[in-house]
Amino acid sequence: MKNSSVRLETLKEYTTTNWNQLLSRVEVKGEKDREDLFYSLLYRGLQSPYLISETDGAYRAIDGSRQTSDFPVYNGWAIWDNYREQLPMLSLLYQDTFASIAKSIANLYPYGKQSWATMHEPSPTVRTEHAIVVLLDAYNKGYAVNFEAIQDALIKEVDQLDYSAPDKALESSYDTWAMSEILKITGDTSLSKNYALKALKYKSYWNTDFADLSKDDVDKMQARGLYQGTIWQYRWFVPFDVDGLKTLIGGEDLFVKQLDQFFADYNYNHANQPDLQVPGLYNATKQPWKSQKLFRNIMLDTVVQTYFNNNSKGVDPYIGKIYNNRPKAYLRTMDDDAGTMSSWFVMRSIGLSSANIGDPIYYLTAPIFKSVKINMGDSKILNIEVKHYNKDHFYIQTVYFNGKKLERNWLTQKELTQGGQLIIETGPKPNKSFGIHNQWISNLKK
Known about the structure:
By secondary structure, the chain is of the alpha+beta class. 39% of the residues lie in helices and 14% in strands.
């Protein structure tokens, strides 16, 4: 009994030390309630994936075979959910671990990757759609991915994508775009062009189901066979070609007008993933300050939420804060989806959000802290400071990166991971001239 108590105490100390090391990778300083909420959500965002290989590299592959790896092998996937936020967060803040995570995702393909977990996996994987997007994202952020070794398996997966419903057509077009980009990397330029052309066909699907907002089902959950979403929510899902989406809608002015309507009519649903990227779309317009406001509202303020997974607008709406530091931290029906929702908060709370998964670009917003210190590894530290900090101010006035004034509202993975000093000055009113020059907007050309 005594030996058991000693072992338990040793395990407790070991676990505490390891968690403290993980959580201290990012040091935030500000109001205590915000600090507490941040670390609670960061902790939730680090629950998976988890290590499955032994110290000698032995592990069981997803086909049940026993294998040996020269890198730590991870499992515990929910890629359809967390490719949007949690995996990008790991790619920036936990580079040492993410290198092995990316290799582990690529390593699913030689052993027969399925959309759901095989019977040999240690956890019930929740869909691995968009794994191809994650691998492209990893490569473009400087991680090693051997595309040549898995190219045939990637092509086979993309060729079997489902376009049978309006949302599936847009989701599948995203993976098809990623395939075209990967084929550029492997040097198959002709085949790359073919997949790019196929990805561009999203426009015909979009025009068929998402252009006309006058129909009476555009705000109804799961209308026209949609999966846990509405026409209003899914119509924005063209992250790889926002420039093309703006053109489809009718140009910058109409794009912004319809975004404004989307939020004014409470069509946004933070209880689920399909429209998580939409609050950041103003960064691709001449009004990026609207994204700064939305991010702060969703993170900290009382908001109105009229949608959940099992109802349409007007049925038992919620008015209150979305994120709370308590066991029941989220909205009704909103689960964290392997750290997705927590990571959405974590990234924006330190002033960053991914522009498009697959491209190494992060849009800037106002941190909710006085300062943020990120240990990037190899003695590289990124210090983020808020000039003229006021807890209620969230509009960016000016930005300086490593002593130089930054006119653009974005930074790259390489710039951030090299470390340095990012100074963001905030104020009570928007600086409407910030972030409207040298903009980064995703664009798929023929």
